[in-house]
Amino acid sequence: MTWWRDLIERVRLLIFRRREDRELREELQFHIDMETAHRSRAGLDPVEARRRSLLALGGLEQTYAHARDARGTGLIEDFGRDMHFTLRMMRRSPGFTAAAVFMLALGTGANAAIFSVLDAVILHSPFREPDRIVMVHELVPRQTAGIPLSHLERIRVLPIFTAVGSLWSGSAILTGAGDVRHETLECVTAGVFEALGTPTLLGRVLTEVDDRPGSDPVVVVSHRFWRDDLGGDPAVIGRRIGLDGTSATIVGVMPPRFLGPFSRNAAEMWAPLGPALHGSSPVGCRSTMMVNVFARLKPGLLLGSANALAGGSQAVADLPSDRGTKGARLLLVGLDDRNSSAPLYFPV
Amino acid sequence: KTLALEPMHGWGIAQRIQMLSGDVFLVTQGSLYPALVRMRRRGWVTTAWRTTEFNRHARYYSLTPAGRRQLTIERAEWERASKAVDGLLAADSIPEGSPA
Fold first, then answer.
1. In a 3-state reduction of DSSP, which class is residue B92?
2. What is the pTM of this model?
3. For testing the chain A interface, which of B41, B49, B56, B69 should be mutated: the one with the most A CBs within 10 Å?
């Protein structure tokens, strides 16, 4: 193998380059002296002999440079010289240097900031195809906290969604897992899990069956709750915990990054909202007249493509009027962009 | 090839090439030194500082076993190429020039 030998030799030449340079000069000087002596013996004037010797060699400095180039360490040596020069220039104009360093720092910082947002929102979203998930609002003169239950069915049948689910907050006194305490719940219909599309770590998500009035009380818990209050038990599915004194079966554990559609840390468990919407009162979820609505857009109806027009991941859909009542206008807001406004008219 | 006989310094090599080739190779002597640096890098020659017969300090080059192997390879290459050229020159059936 000659390549590694060659590499070692190059490194050696680089490390001892001062000595190498000196030796090369000495060698070339020796050559000239010998050649001059040789030509003088032939009867030439010493000055002329020396001139011709240099000519025959092709110039002392030129040969020196060529022989140095042949070492194959030129790139690294040039780089070193460039660095040296750069540092000198930077010392000479500290103002310019400071400005340049500041600009680079700003650019790097901005890049890192944008990437960390993208990373959290898109690249590592706990949801499946997060750009298809929207929160549905009604465009009404006075912004309301949610959508009236009476409008829910008409939203559900809109042809732009593949899944629609509703959510309302709840709470319960928790017993049978860790300390007895007041626990915040998110009461959701099966459609929310369908819209978000996140698979469970263990067990199953809530289904339509759980939403029927009179069905057995069940609950899906967060990864943190499972880890901290249930001891990370891999056989936790089927275990019962007490919520407001009622025993509820744990049917699923969500993965670590899933914190519900709002991605708040408050949510530790999800219970079916369905029974509450039908008037019965299951664990933790009280009946309500208002809900938050989350939906998954049909493929090809990405808000992202509408973005190009409006500059925000939002769209507006008209809710068909029903038995004389005036149809409401819906505002669809992408999950990653809930705080911006400026609606876009979205043909339905 | 020059070094195959004995270790030699740069000037000596240049002299010998000039002599052996019957002054046919009027290559500038300067091109010898980059070549020697490359040959040393590839491990074909080693160097040592010695004193010449005129009591001067000089760098002597000597051929390594690897260099000797390389010499054999290159000689074979050269013979192949030179045979090809000889063949071309011997076949002088090609009419020299054509009526313009």
1. coil
2. 0.50
3. B41
